[in-house]
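cron nightly-structures :: item 1 of 1
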Amino acid sequence: FDPIKGASYFFGNGDVDDAVWLTFLAIHFGKNKNSKWSLVRSVYGGLGQQIWDWQSVTTDFVGFEMWLNDNYRLFQGAFGNHRKYESIRPHSKRSPAAVFQSYIDIFDQTFDHQLFFTNASLQMGADPKGLFDHLYECMGHVLSFGRTAKFDFLTMLGKLGIVDVEPGHAYLNGATGPKKGAKLLFDGTASSRTPTAELNQKIA
């Protein structure tokens, strides 16, 4: 099971919604070095009970949440390294259901990824970097999605050809290690006072 290949397959067959949804799940759970994509498979594949595709989740989110709560102990695999502080427990502050609901809420009852991206493109114009920045801000509404998750999600959509986006800078705001690394690279010391905006420009 490879959700990125699955997303590519769906997109190639005109199913933008499931292509983006599967990409989102891949980024949310991450690829674990040992169990690979098993956690994504457990949720999307419904433990062999049913496929929780985009239509199923958006038309019956209550049922989806109940299924998550009833079956989370049976999920196989673990979160990827960038997502190691996330939880599959239903009563955690950033439970899967809460994260997924915050993602769905972005689409304002249309539940249409293509329409969402088209409207964003009309708003921002034909600038891949400007569109990336706009969508990066939109993804900030997703619970538990920090700079790395937002960056990974949008760049993956770009790699798959789903959305014509390109990051214009490294998005160091909120970063720790990367920002120190940039200061060390350009200033020779990780404790320099170079503003983040300037570091972003130098890296770009």
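cron nightly-structures :: done
The mean pLDDT is 95.
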